[in-house]
Amino acid sequence: MDDNYIKHRYAPIIPSKDEWPVVKLARERREFVKKVADLAESRVLGLTGKNHEILKEELETTLYREKLRVKQNPWAVDPYDEDSFWNEVRSSLLQVNTDLSLDKNKRFQAYQKILHRITSRYAEEIASNFKASHYKFTRSVVTYGFSRLLNAARVKGIKSIFSNQYSLQDKIQITGQTDQIRDLATKGTIVMVPTHFSNLDSILIGWIISVLGMPPFIYGAGLNLFNISIFAYFMNALGAYKVDRRKKNLMYLETLKTYSKEAIQFGCHSLFFPGGTRSRSGMIESKLKLGLLSTAIEAQRANFQNGINDISGKIFIVPVTINYHFVLEAPSLIRDHLSSTGQERYYKENDEFSTSYKIFKFLLKFFTKGSDISVSIGRAMDVLGNYVDQDGNSLDKRGRQIDTRDYFISDGKITVDQQREEEYTHMLGKRIVEEFHKINRVFSSHLVAFVGFELIKAKNNKLDIFDLIRLPEEYISISYEEFKVACQRVMDRILELKAQGMIDIAPHMKRTMDEIITHGIDNVGMYHAKRPLIRDNQGYITTEDMSLLYFYHNRLHGYGLEKLF
Amino acid sequence: MALRNSSKPKRIGVVGVGSFGTAIANMLAEKNEVMVYARKEEVVEEINTAHRTSGREIHPAIRATFSPEALCKSCNVLFFMIPSSAFLEVVRNFGPFLYPYHLIIHGTKGLALNLGPNDSLETVQKLKRNQILTMSEVLLQETVAVRVGCLAGPNISKELSLGHPAATVIASRYNEVILEGQRLLRSEKFQVYGNSDIIGVELSGVLKNIIAIAAGALAGLGLGENAKGLLISRGLVEMVHLSKALGGSVQAVVGLAGIGDLVTTCNSVDSRNFTVGFRLAKGESLDQILGSMDEVAEGVNTIRVMDAFIKTAGIRAPITENLHRVLFEDLAIEDALQFLMKYPFSVDVDFV
Fold first, then answer.
1. Which residues does chain A have within 8 Å of residue B146's beta carbon, measured at their own beta carbons?
2. What reaction is this protein's catalytic activity (chain B) (predicted)?
């Protein structure tokens, strides 16, 4: 991967916004929602084997859970008629259950009717509210506002407000296969899969997509974000559809998957955060949520079934990593991670972005002080994880051209095999994780945090992570010389890995080791009240917050670098 | 793609015409059109004209070819029935002609090593799991085929050829591979079970060869049925532990491909692994024995690989470790037996 950051704004690949897939989808929203509801309904019917007893049970489970949710975990964004809707469902269910005059078929039809009401409601709720005018407005607010802030901070004097000396692209560096993704976006459908560390990621990625001149991508954003009005506006403008993590019932999940699959088939470029949620530990995601990923594979197979065998029906998976020196939410994320009992439903939603004011404060900090972000765009792959060439043809490990369609063929015909596609989803997930590690860019702050934590751990090798984070401060100090030697050792290994194409580094890593260390310590988690890594008065390296150090250290987890200690 | 243009029904491919390959090809040929691959031109000629090879009858409808390309073009389903020593080479020859629509089922019991180009088992200090490949992992690494399965179980070729009742396991992560294997092979004399743990099933078939050598040694020492019962039971425990350490499940080992095959192999005096053990106990050296066998007994290689893995992983496997000492470190077989009898196995079963 070359070191040249993309500094210019690309020309749009589709100039007329009427041609944007997401605009077309918004125009046909009503029909699309109906289609999703109908398809989701038939999927649920398929899963219940058209057995009225099983269907009844699923309906009752859903009703029970939804009633519980409405009562125990209401959100501001919930529609006002939640309660009355589920009450109606309950009474219709009761009516069917007690009506003894119904025969098996009639009963089934009655249940199906209730199912249809539910999937329709869900589909309507999930669907995005994209408006091109809002999108344009948001984009210019983001770009204009951000660069004003940036210049105000960096250029001295009264004219600073109007200076254009610095642009957002000095701050947020884009690197990697940008030409390929632009090119493929005009030919087929892109599914972008970025790493996820911060709530800012969605806005950041949205902005990057627009810098690259691509039409907006649709993506599933946590419904909790829509609780905050400023986010809700941005999300809607960016083409977000809503994912409600409180709803784990079959009908909701099937509707959601159907929505994603149909939107991809419609030609909408999509964005999934395949980790499902922000990485709590600070590690690059290693276990991906496969639910949405499977919809990319399903959509690809459906395109082949419909006879779209050329590139227009091809789906490209593009991994992206976002690298920060600083993650605003780090303290609460790592707290969640450490206290997590492994059961997702117990974690509390975080609070850093809970009000518009806090977001504004963060943005101000972010732009007025230098903390760079780099975004690496990976090589595009087909839905089985094979790299593709510039014409979108899949290539096997030896560079031979292969046809993705062949993966879905048995006995010469395209077949639908859910179990097979589950396996393919696992394979794709593994490939994405591999690619994340390859395109991940090491920053100075990652290096120093990693080395700092590992040295402390090595000195206290009897302690596990929970004892380590409670270690008294006097036990934590590393002489600069020792620290530097260890940094060099890790750096050498990183350079070896880079030579094998297993990792990437930021350009500032080419300075001398002393400069890298200073840069790293200055930048690692720079806005936290307690800094993960500092140099004290005597020049020793120490930490003010061990768990934060652990969080930033984790970024280099998964490369076997621990073995150097 | 041009390869799919022919509309005539595809044949079933069998790669390798050793005793097992021939037996499977003949069974497949009862219900399907079959094409076999042999490396040597004269063998192909013999099969196509005389319908026999190496003294074994071949179903007259079976066509033979020596071209990997021709076989891959004519077949969607391929059975790889080749000795493990040749497996990698043959798979590499087929690689350029295989596509993702091919289904591959292999019947090879062995392990391959995934080392750097200049490394061998002698030069590496440690042998980790990712440096050991089962045959399905070889297929996934070397070809673009993903729908891969394996065939394992107590299947002595001679008995299959005679049409005696028998059964096998087809293991694959893909249900469609299992179903296709069952459809093709199942008959009133041949039962086919399915298992989704392909690694566990492959490892069962591989690890049981170690125990088969030990069984031959017991027979060579003139020990009786009590000793054999002891060996089979302790051998099964060891197989479970090794298989788990390599990523297989307990279930696979206690199934047909594990204990089923273990009992058969420990009683089959003709098997190569059994013979190695038997002749060792009679006082021959490993070099003498291997020098007089036309093919390497698979268990010998498996013991070397597993011994290196055991040492790296820090686990204990007394039967494998002691056989390694007998084979490669000049321990007398009686001493190894003594060692095993004194070994503190106090727990009978600790894996269920």
1. 384, 407, 423-424, 427
2. sn-glycerol 3-phosphate + NAD(+) = dihydroxyacetone phosphate + NADH + H(+); sn-glycerol 3-phosphate + NADP(+) = dihydroxyacetone phosphate + NADPH + H(+)
Residue A540 token pair: 């020793």
Range of the domain at A32: 22-126
Q: Report the topology of domain B2-196.
A: Rossmann fold (3.40.50)
pLDDT for the residue B348: 73
Which position among B8, B208, B282, B342 bears the catalytic label? B208
Residues A295, A430 contacting (CB under 8 angstroms): no
At A281, is the pLDDT very low, low, confident or very high (cuts 50, 70, 90)? confident
Answer whether A139's CB lies under 8 Å from A210's CB: yes
Count other C-beta atoms under 10 Å from residue A124's C-beta.
16
Best probe of the B interface among A396, A427, A428, A500, by most B CBs < 10 A, is A396
d(CA A100, CA A110): 13
CB contact under 8 A, B144 and A396: yes
Rounded Cα distance between B193 and B155, Å, is: 13
Q: Among A98-102, A303-307, A435-439, B109-113, which stretch is predicted with the lowest mean pLDDT?
A: A98-102
A469–B contact, CB cutoff 8 A: no
- Does residue A249 share a domain with residue A223? yes
Segment A161-207, tens digit of pLDDT: 555 556 666 677 888 898 999 999 999 999 999 998 887 787 788 88
pLDDT in tens, B217-245: 999 999 888 989 989 999 999 999 999 99
Residues of B with Cβ-Cβ distance to A420 under 8 angstroms = 147, 174-176
Model confidence at B173: pLDDT above 50: yes
Count chain A–chain B contacts defined by CB atoms under 8 A.
51
Q: Do B174 and A407 count as a contact with CB atoms less than 8 A apart?
A: no
Contact list in A for residue B1 (CB cut-off 8 A) is 403, 406
Active site residue B208: yes
3-class DSSP state for residue B56?
strand
Say yes or no: B140 contacts chain A, CB-CB below 8 A: no
Record: contact B144-A400, CB cut-off 8 A: yes
Rounded Cα–Cα distance for residues B237 and B244 (Å): 11
CB B333 within 8 A of CB B217: yes
Domain end, chosen from A126, A147, A162, is at: A126
pLDDT score at B345 = 65
Residues A160 and A50 in one domain: no
Asked if B216 and B281 touch (Cβ cutoff 8 Å), the reply is: yes
Closest CA relative to residue A394, chosen from A288, A384, A162, A440 = A384
Examine the domain organization and report whether A322 and A394 are in the same domain.
Answer: yes
Q: Which of residues 59-98 of B touch A (CB under 8 A)?
A: 76, 95-96
Residues A395 and A293 grouped into a single domain:
yes
Q: How many CB atoms lie within 10 A of CB A509?
A: 22
pTM confidence score = 0.89
Q: Which of A132, A279, A316 is nearest to A199 (CA)?
A: A279
Nearest-10 Cα torsion for B222, B228, B231, B233: -170
Considering the domain delimited by B200-342, tell me its CATH architecture. Orthogonal Bundle (1.10)
Q: Which helix (H) or strand (E) segment is B239 a member of?
A: helix B225-245
ipTM of the complex: 0.89
- Range from A271-280, A297-306, A335-344 that averages highest in pLDDT: A297-306
Residue A527 contacts residue A552 (beta carbons within 8 Å): no
In-domain check, residue A4: no
Q: Do B175 and A419 touch (CB under 8 A)?
A: yes
Residue A514 lies in a domain: yes
Interface test with B, best of A402, A414, A426 (most B CBs within 10 A): A402
Token pair for A2:
């070359």
The nearest alpha carbon in chain B to A414 belongs to B101
* Six token digits for residue B157: 């070729």
Q: Are B146 and A427 an interchain contact pair (Cβ–Cβ within 8 Å)?
A: yes
SS3 A431: helix
